[in-house]
Amino acid sequence: MIIQRVVLNSRPGKNGTPAAENFRVEEATLPDQISEGQVRVRTLYLSVDPYMRCRLNEETGVDYLKPWQLSQVTDGGGVGIVEESKYAHLSEGDFVTSFSWPWQTRAILDGEILEKVTPQLVDGHLSYFLGAIGMPGLTSLLGIKEKGHVTAGSNQTMVVSGAAGCCGSLAGQIARLEGCSRVVGICGTDEKRSVLVSELGFDAAVNYRTEDVEGQLRDLCPAGVDVYFDNVGGSVSDAVIRQMNENGHVVLCGQISQYNRDVPYPPQLPPAVEAILKERNITRERFTVLNYRDKFDSGILQLSRWFREGKLKVKETVINGLENMGAAFQSMMTGGNIGKQIVRISD
Ligand SMILES: NC(=O)c1ccc[n+]([C@@H]2O[C@H](COP(=O)([O-])OP(=O)(O)OC[C@H]3O[C@@H](n4cnc5c(N)ncnc54)[C@H](OP(=O)(O)O)[C@@H]3O)[C@@H](O)[C@H]2O)c1
């Protein structure tokens, strides 16, 4: 069987901006037979995520991520349907997901790396298993629960950067559900700002590309900032931290503004901002969702319940076709997405 697949064509270099040309599409032949323990799957949706920037380097900088190899198939989060199974726990027609789904139209995989998913949890929107009811949703939920110290009824204000992206758009809504009284987002376009306020229930939002973030936050967070869900780092985060109250908490989710720079993670804060953390007793602990695997099942059920009750709104930007994986990745890294950036491979 002839399939299409995506391989790594080139590396952007440690300090380079990724481009669609870093990826290449080619044809390949899939064997007709599968072995015991294997399944053949058809790919429905693939995910592009910021962490993949590390996999484009020869060294990823973290032990839980392996670099992609030149001319080898790239992989990440995926959802598909089982077409043939010689693995006891999966049958033809099952929907499955994996963090290590090869970027190809069909694949033969070890059944063990696949997890069966229940379409009812997402009202049939299978791509949500890669976003709101998947790893990014868990990141927002567990980040807030484990590092946010949100206490209902205590009038906390939360600021979220990267607010119109996948994790950010969910974090703002979850902050409200968990009891924050005011939620303010920071994002990169006026359209995103409008979506945050009119569709996702943020009290206000700031466009960091055109507005003075610190000045706006002073007005929009009159009682100061108690919790900061940080997706971006850099000067945006410095401005937020300067507005934080004593005993506040930074949820150190990600630092996407620094991912094309060869600096250790998390990048150092300017000394004056570091001094604010100490003076005001603000916590800023590294958060990695993969350290909380024991909470994934209950977290997915919680996210699904909120979604089906209409309390958690899900935004997606969908691009069609395996040949657009590189373009989708580039677009997400430069702010082209609202909500989760998804690539639809087949129906
Ligand atoms: N800790 C964990 O376990 C974990 C797990 C998943 C994700 N993450 C992190 O969470 C963050 C968000 O991930 P996501 O999946 O939700 O991605 P995403 O927000 O859907 O997409 C990335 C967004 O970041 C914004 N951005 C890009 N460059 C920027 C810059 N220089 N300054 C400010 N904003 C910039 C863009 O929107 P704008 O238009 O607003 O610029 C872009 O749409 C990332 O840092 C990621 O690494 C962490």
Radius of gyration (Å) = 20 Å
- Morphology call: globular
User: Could you say which structural class the secondary elements and strand pairing correspond to?
Assistant: alpha/beta
Q: Order of SSEs, N→C?
A: EEEHEEEEHEHEHEHEHEHEHEHE
Terminal CA distance = 19 Å
Structure description:
Belongs to the NADP-dependent oxidoreductase L4BD family. One of its GO terms (biological process) is prostaglandin metabolic process. It holds the Pfam family ADH_zinc_N. Residues 16-343 form the Enoyl reductase (ER) domain. One of its GO terms (cellular component) is cytoplasm. The model has no long low-confidence stretch (mean pLDDT 97). It is built from 9 helices and 15 strands. Strands 3, 4, 5, 6, 7, 14 and 15 form a 7-stranded mixed sheet that branches. A 6-stranded parallel sheet has the order 10-9-8-11-12-13, with helices on both faces. It has helices at 52-55, 135-148, 166-178, 190-198, 213-220, 234-242, 271-279, 296-308, 325-333; strands spanning 2-8, 23-29, 38-47, 75-85, 95-102, 106-110, 115-116, 157-160, 182-187, 204-207, 225-230, 244-252, 283-286, 316-320, 340-344. The protein has 2 domains: 2-131 and 314-344, Quinone Oxidoreductase, Chain A, domain 1, CATH 3.90.180.10; 135-290, Rossmann fold. α2 packs across α3 and α2 (135-148) crosses α8. By secondary structure, the protein is an alpha/beta fold. The protein binds NADP nicotinamide-adenine-dinucleotide phosphate. Residues 49-51, 136, 139, 162, 164-168, 187-189, 192, 231-232, 236, 253-257, 287-289, 332-333, 335, 337, 341 line the site of NADP nicotinamide-adenine-dinucleotide phosphate.
